[in-house]
Amino acid sequence: MADTIKARDAADVEQAICAALGDGRTLELTGRGTKRGIGRAAQWDATLDLSGLSGVTLYEPEELVLSAKAGTPLAEIEALVAASKQQLAFEPMDYGPVLGVAPGGGTIGGAIAANLSGPRRIKAGAARDHFLGVNAVSGRGETFKSGGRVVKNVTGYDLCKLLAGSWGTLAAMTDITIKTLPRAETEATVLVFALDDGAACKAMAAAMGSYGDVSAAAHLQPAVGARIAATANAVGAVTAFRLEGVAPSVAQRKSVLEALLAPFSALGTLDEAASRSFWRAVRDVTPFAAFRPFGEPDLWRISTAPARGADIGRKLTEQAGAEILYDWAGGLVWAALPPSADANAALVRTTVAEAGGHATLIRAPAPVRAAVEVFTPEPPPLAALTRRVREGFDPNGVLNPGRMWAGV
Amino acid sequence: MPVAMPLPDDAVLVRRAEIVAALRGIVPGEGVIASEEAMRPYESDGLTAYRQLPMVVVLPETTAQVAGVLGYCHREGIKVVPRGAGTSLSGGALPLGDGVLLGMAKFNRIREIDFDNRVAVVEPGVTNLAVSQAVEQAGFYYAPDPSSQIACTIGGNVAENSGGVHCLKYGVTTNNVLGCELVLMTGEVLRLGGKHLDAGGYDLLGIVTGSEGLLGVVTEVTVRILKKPQTARAALIGFPSSEDAGDCVARIIGAGIIPGGMEMMDGPAIKAAEDFVHAGYPLDVEALLIVELDGPAAEVDHLLERVQEIARGCCAATCRISNSEEERLLFWAGRKAAFPAVGRISPDYYCMDGTIPRAKLPLVLKRMQELSRQYGLRVANVFHAGDGNLHPLILYDANRPGELERAEEFGADILRLCVEVGGVLTGEHGVGVEKRDLMPAMFTPADLDQQQRLKCAFDDKSLLNPGKVFPTLHRCAELGRMHVHAGKVAFPDLPRF
Ligand SMILES: Cc1cc2nc3c(=O)[nH]c(=O)nc-3n(C[C@H](O)[C@H](O)[C@H](O)COP(=O)(O)OP(=O)(O)OC[C@H]3O[C@@H](n4cnc5c(N)ncnc54)[C@H](O)[C@@H]3O)c2cc1C
After folding, report:
1. Distance between CA atoms of B39 and A169, rounded to whole angstroms?
2. Which of A3, A246, A396 sits opposite B303 (nearest CB)?
3. Given A5, A87, A151, A228, which residue has the most CB atoms within 10 angstroms?
4. What is the CB < 6 Å shell around ligand 1?
5. pLDDT in tens, A385-406
6. Is A251 within 8 Å of B298 when comparing Cβ atoms?
7. What is the mean pLDDT of residues B59-85?
8. How far apart (Å, rounded) are the C-alpha atoms in residues B306 and B317?
9. Do the first three CATH levels of A186-286 and A292-371 match, i.e. the same topology?
10. Closest Cα to residue B220, out of B181, B172, B266?
11. Quick one: which of A231, A269, A234, A237 has its CA closest to A250?
């Protein structure tokens, strides 16, 4: 069994990486390990556990800024900012349910490294958009920083953007500064029933182009919606639109939206409490949680142009028996496919290539994730650039090698 | 100009005629400009204190031409400086005497407007405002709105990661761009992103945005367009001191309100603006806030009530609420004309662009007054108050010997002060030539090396816009070297499990 090195502070992280470099060993970087199941199934010589780097070091609500050590539990940060009526507006999803891991376990470092977001992505952005500053140790064993603690900053390259979503393949982040934002005072959700996927995507496009100022739009096929408590009794598919803000604004926009959507189909509403629990379930994709009677379906996460979402969903449904949950007004397609030896990778990749976008195999047994590409393969000039970028940070391939692509 | 640019390479300059001929082979017709007179308009950008004629100007019209020019220059070891509209305030588009100035102005078409996906696909030479104008009939707009928006290009906006007065609520360029086509210095053409959200691999689009033309030439951009807010109203609030105004800003945000725009001006800026546009600004106050709320009428009215209440609790001396679109625009007119207004009261002015943690505003303004006395130069301040982005305007007269240098030193001291209080050297104008040599005030050599290694991944010979952003240019081979001595490092004190 591989060694685990538990870093206590940033100096330990630097030492551990230098030691690995010296010994020619590779390191797996983990926070609390909740997303370990995502990525290519590769092997590392040792694990560098960053969960000991924990604690919020700065929080100034009126400056909209929070700094924490990278291993700080996300739940701790979310509770802290909630006490000041703020939130992480990027609404980081919790992969726990779909990966069969206890929910609420992730760290802020993991949230950034995976560039998490949630249904509010369409309005407020992803982790990348709220990531202001970082201290990190590169695969060269060198400590560096980028960004700062102010929300507006163009001083030097924005390395934060690059580290967000790099899955620990460039540097071990030790300290993270993010933007916090006020939490909406209230919310409500407008529901439209029984639309097929194509009509639902049209309804979502209409809503996104309206004065409704919708902060989330999702479409759940009948069997999918039935697995969420708030919509369990809906007849047929559920298309949902979230409105957030101060009460008078939510009320006004609700009538705008209802007038707009009435021609589509029958309407319903979720009040504040039901709306919160519904969107949490959509955020965490709980209808595809890892507890299913007949073997886990393979789960793909597909990002595409919103108007193309239904095309992808339709094809995967017809040709591979997929179940689909559409978020981001159709731009995020969660496709659960009956298990197969190659997770239907060829079908998924060609379908997504036609529509534009990218697909990540989030859940499949390790042998499948070792056999097929988990992240979208890049065309040659881009793949070469990716490799050069990686080599600039980690020329010896010490940090999570092979997690995103073989050799990267 | 105190900032030294890379020395021109004589080996390149002696080949000028041959190079110009080769470039004419790639970009035919009037796309290659080699006469001194015709190159004059390109000798500087918005940072006019710096001037340099390029070796030659090339105005390509197609991606293939851009790729051809870059590939040729890469093979021949010739430097290239990309340019949009040339409004950069940091000298980002300053030419090099031995380099090609690659003007992107002919890339001026809007290729696609896609309302279903709420994006526009545009060429990089399209102006920022033209994007909003192209979609406004359907009630949409492109959110980042730099004050230079009638002139500056989307390509320049991407390169500088530009912001505007509405970016506290709607984000800067990087939050509003989904994809681009990028030509590397080798001539390779890449597509980053598209109409979808987030990168499938590394977020290279996020790195290219704000890279100041050092990583690649952008030949197409996909931007998000948003539905215009239904209504907007502004409050114009005067305060007896900047402390009170700063306190009011903090309390507005503390109350959970993120206004569409929140701008502050200090005494000298208020006076200059009022004398110029007669917007009805109060002249007996030390600080003026414009707070704009946008959204559905019910929301705007509701939040304006709260803002007024907060302002009253912060010793506001005056408070007016716009009751018509004309009045709202009048409130803004003074702020938007602040730069030219200051231009009227001084022969020259120098615009700075630091960001500070907002709570440090009173301290920074006080120290700035001290510096102003020390340097014997006046300063007026406009301030994107919501996000702490400060624009001190230093007034000077370039015709008086030594004043420009004094203004630059004053400016550098202000930026060092911003860093000292926890802020940064530039909030939206970029490092360029102007702040290049101040980078070590904010970054360690290791920080800068890591940034330069990224540069090397895109441009191994450092031919694209060299002399900008980085105070010292290291050779890529040197930066790439690893300093590890196998077996020598052992760390017995690390806990292992
Ligand atoms: C009066 C005034 C007001 C301003 N107000 C604001 C403001 O409110 N907010 C703000 O952020 N900025 C502001 N600016 C600064 C400036 O307008 C912005 O930085 C703008 O984005 C520059 O665009 P441009 O097309 O003029 O680019 P240029 O000045 O031509 O070039 C800027 C940089 O971009 C690079 N570049 C240009 N095109 C490309 C391309 N296609 N591919 C790769 N690199 C490219 C150049 O090499 C250079 O480094 C202001 C400037 C002025 C003069």
Report:
1. 46
2. A246
3. A151
4. B 45-46, 81-89, 92-93, 104, 124, 146-148, 152-153, 155-157, 159-160, 162-164, 212-213, 217-218, 339, 428-429, 465
5. 999 999 999 999 999 999 999 8
6. yes
7. 98
8. 17
9. yes
10. B181
11. A269
- B329, pLDDT greater than 50: yes
Question: Contact B198/A23, CB-based, under 8 Å?
Answer: no
Q: At residue B365, what are phi and psi to the nearest 5 degrees?
A: -65, -40
pLDDT band at B487 (very low <50, low <70, confident <90, very high): very low
Beta-bridged to residue A268, according to DSSP, are A191
Q: Which residues of B271-284 are buried (b: 16+ CB within 10 A; e: fewer)?
A: bbbbebbebebbee
Contact B111, B220 (CB under 8 A): yes
Minimal CA–CA distance to A168: which of A404, A407, A406?
Answer: A404
Q: What share of chain B is helix, strand, coil (3-state, %, to 5)?
A: 40, 20, 40
Determine the Cα–Cα distance for residues B288 and B10; give it in Å rounded to an integer: 54
**Cα(A253)–Cα(A246) distance, integer angstroms:** 11
Q: Which of B117, B299, B428 sits opposite A152 (nearest CB)?
A: B428
Interface-testing mutation among A23, A155, A243, A327, with chain B (most B C-beta atoms within 10 A)? A155
Q: What is the pLDDT at residue A94?
A: 98
Question: Which CATH number applies to A292-371: 1.20.1050.10, 3.40.50.12780, 3.30.70.100, 3.40.50.800?
Answer: 3.30.70.100
Sign of CA dihedral B107, B108, B114, B118: positive
SS3 of residue A188 by DSSP: strand
Other beta carbons within 10 Å of B312: 12
Atom of ligand 1 nearest to the CA of B430: 19
H or E stretch at B332: helix B325-336
* DSSP state for residue A256 in the 8-state scheme: H
pLDDT above 50 (res A185): yes
Q: How far is the CA of B149 from the centre of ligand 1 (A)?
A: 9
Question: Could A303 and B198 be called an inter-chain contact, meaning their C-beta atoms sit closer than 8 Å?
Answer: yes
Asked whether the whole model's pTM tops 0.90, one would answer yes
Residue A110 and residue B455: Cα distance in Å, rounded?
A: 26
Give Cβ neighbours of residue B478 (< 8 Å, ≥ 6 apart): none
What are the boundaries of each domain within chain A?
1-183, 186-286, 292-371
Residue recorded with tokens 């997929």:
A322
CA distances from A103 to A32, A227, A286, B304 (A): 12, 18, 11, 40
Mean pLDDT of B67-85: 98
Distance separating alpha carbons of residues B491 and B456, to the nearest angstrom:
32
Substitution target in A154, A162, A186, A403 with the highest count of B β-carbons within 10 Å is A154
DSSP B230-253: SEEEEEEEEESSHHHHHHHHHHHH
Structure tokens at B195: 């109409």
Q: How far is the CA of B172 from the centre of ligand 1 (A)?
A: 13
**Taken in order A189, A192, A198, A199, is the CA torsion positive or negative?**
negative
Cα–Cα distance between A125 and A131 in angstroms, integer? 11
Of B42-51, B54-63, B482-491, highest mean pLDDT: B54-63
* Six token digits for residue B485: 């001595």
Listed residue (A9, A332, A49, A320) closest to A143, CA to CA: A9
Domain A186-286 fold: Alpha-Beta Plaits (3.30.70)
Give one DSSP letter per residue of B19-82, joined into a string. HHHHHHHHS-GGGEE--HHHHGGGS--S-TT-----SEEE---SHHHHHHHHHHHHHHT-EEEE
Total length of chain B? 497
Residue A382 has pLDDT above 50, yes or no: yes
**Exposure of B363 in the CB half-sphere (CA atoms within 13 A):** 11
Convert the pLDDT of each residue in A126-155 to its tens digit.
999 999 999 999 999 999 999 999 999 999
The architecture that CATH gives domain A1-183 is: 2-Layer Sandwich (3.30)
